[in-house]
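hi! just following up on the protien thing from before. the input was this:
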Amino acid sequence: MSGEFFVILHQNSHTARGFPFIYLNTYYPVALNYIWIAFFLVAACVAVVKLVFFGDVDVFPAIMNATMESAKNGFEISLGLTAVLSLWMGIMKIGERGGMVERLARWLAPLFRRLFPEIPEGHPVVGNIFMNLSANMLGLDNAATPLGLKAMEGLQELNPRKDTASNSMIMFLVMNTAGLTIVPVSILAYRAQMGAAQPTDVFVPILLATLISMVIGVAVTGAIQRISLWNRPVILTLVLFSLIVAGMAWAAQTLSRDAMGVFSGNVANIILLGIIVVFILAGMRRKINVYDAFIEGAKGGFATAVGIIPYLIAILVGIAVFRASGAMDWLLGGIGWVVEACGGNADITGALPTAFMKPLSGSGARGMMLECMQTYGPDSLAGRLSCIFQGSTDTTFYILAVYFGSVGIRNTRYALPCGLIADLASMVAAIVVALTFFG
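and the predicted 3d structure came back as:
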């Protein structure tokens, strides 16, 4: 799921029991709250330095213009999200009434009992979780968000502490932030537009990096929650995903550039339309009023979108201030210097802005990816690596903020550290894979 980054200001959170070397009942810092505050304080310090020592008289006007523009963008983004939410929550309501979500829950019960032991067997929320993860795997960003919000509503119904994230919520969020993507349609399209000699050459690296991110994210979260992942359903699922990755890798190597683009786009869209048709047919079979069911679900999508507007505006303003002050440029410049000083491949430095922006903003990372390809070339190591960064993880802060914000969760507990661990694993894997394939 990609999108703009917005966040919930929340309270002190507890670590989970059983995680090695972490004491019970200790408190994590109010991480998201501190990050939001840091955007402003660091930006202000950098702006003062630029004004006093470098005579940059434009920095403060740029910051204030950024605040106004980002607030406006936040509202406009929420309007666009309203339409998508209404559409897909209406479709999901048809699926619920038609019994499809319940069927998915039964089919997935063996796997989800291991990953989500708090969820009662056969609960419909299992089907919602599966639909969301499937949309992410197919690169269907617009469909993934409302499906994920629907899943969070179901998990909140089971949550005994309504302002605190449950273990099931955190596992679900980490699986989202890991961003497992099997068909990275948009990235292949961007590479073709930028004139890459072989736009699909990043296909296999993205699959490998995103699979590593998912495995590590789930493993770390499972360790904190004391969930044993060494069991038949989990192992079989991992083997299945590996086979899918191998099959897609074979397709990427054997199909032409144009054929691969057509194949990827059609697979995603056929599956999406198929879901809609199957849900409608299931509703007809149960003799429900499909139209009324859609309208009921769409109304809920509208209410959800309105509720997250304040969170969206708050964080978009924070990140805009950080970027407009030049703090982001200084940060990335320092990291690049460290990489070179440590003997690392300096060619990867140009792609690092995409990696560091991706957990914060999907569109920001997308812009940095395009800028990197334009600056260094789509077939350069930096250009390819930026595409792998973009496709191998997801917008962690956005996901935590919008999903938790939609159900009023303030205490996110250890969701953020686990999500960032998955991001870090994806980043390291992307660099290793890129150097292996293109270095």
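The beta strands are 13-14, 27-28.
The CA atoms of residues 82 and 303 lie 8 Å apart.
cheers
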